[in-house]
């Protein structure tokens, strides 16, 4: 048997039947630079508490799967260098070898299910990369959404991906993609990807009801909620598009592939926007945390 170490806060919350929201840790180790990663991780946890739910950040530490990190564990992870990036394929091997790693959306969904948590807030999901017809680079996040019953709140998919193909793969796999409060599927730094989401809902209550209905129907898999970044923090498409193009060209020139692609692109876009992409990233994660907490409250009710 493996051991799942729950934080004291998570144990207390679940005993009391309180709403809980899962959080990933790859965004901390591979998505943002130190110290903004630590500050953001703490703020996001506090946003969830302020919204009446309890946060549980997932990670593997010395071979042990953690659901909810104590303050010093969160800080150590945020400061650590060369932490492994764990997706579905890597989780068991890391635990078996006693390693330490941060969970992607896919691995966080697995951890959330094991911990009995139904809602998860992140920034953006992985998806079908541009040029996937040659590289076959499709994030395991999409297959996870098809098989693990967790509702994931994200700000859509980044325009570093091929968003139309990402939506097609989700549709093929029967994953409900729900835009929150608008018709358009959001594109992370921008509110509108130019594509209409297959579904649109205007309240956390509806999203929770839909999650529950899927369980009643016995459908495996989760839901993807696309929550647009608040208007004041958005980077308009016209501004971010050329920057994404430049980062993608550099990745190709430097032969970046596999797990390294997403972290490389995020870091280059951070540099090319002189940090503005990070400000937007922080704002949208916090916005997603608040919506996820509201959904969790409806699920707990
Ligand atoms: N999108 C972000 N920030 C991130 C990631 C995605 O805005 O940090 C991370 C997430 O953990 C996601 C992972 O699950 O990248 C996807 O990586 P890949 O494309 O290698 O599956
Ligand atoms: Mn990939």
TrEMBL record:
Amino acids binding substrate: 85, 105, 139-141
Binding site for Mn(2+): 137
EC number(s) given by UniProt: 4.2.1.70
Cofactor binding note of this UniProt entry: Binds 1 Mn(2+) ion per subunit.
Gene3D superfamilies in the cross-refs: Indigoidine synthase domain
Catalytic site: 24, 158
InterPro entries linked to this entry: Indigdn_synthA-like, PsuG
Keyword field contains tRNA processing: no
Record's catalysed reaction(s): D-ribose 5-phosphate + uracil = psi-UMP + H2O
Keywords tagged on the record: Glycosidase, Hydrolase, Lyase, Manganese, Metal-binding
Gene Ontology terms for molecular function: hydrolase activity, acting on glycosyl bonds; metal ion binding; pseudouridylate synthase activity
Cofactor(s) essential for the protein: Mn(2+)
GO biological process: nucleobase catabolic process
Reported function: Catalyzes the reversible cleavage of pseudouridine 5'-phosphate (PsiMP) to ribose 5-phosphate and uracil. Functions biologically in the cleavage direction, as part of a pseudouridine degradation pathway.
Quaternary structure note: Homotrimer.
Name by which UniProt lists this protein: Pseudouridine-5'-phosphate glycosidase
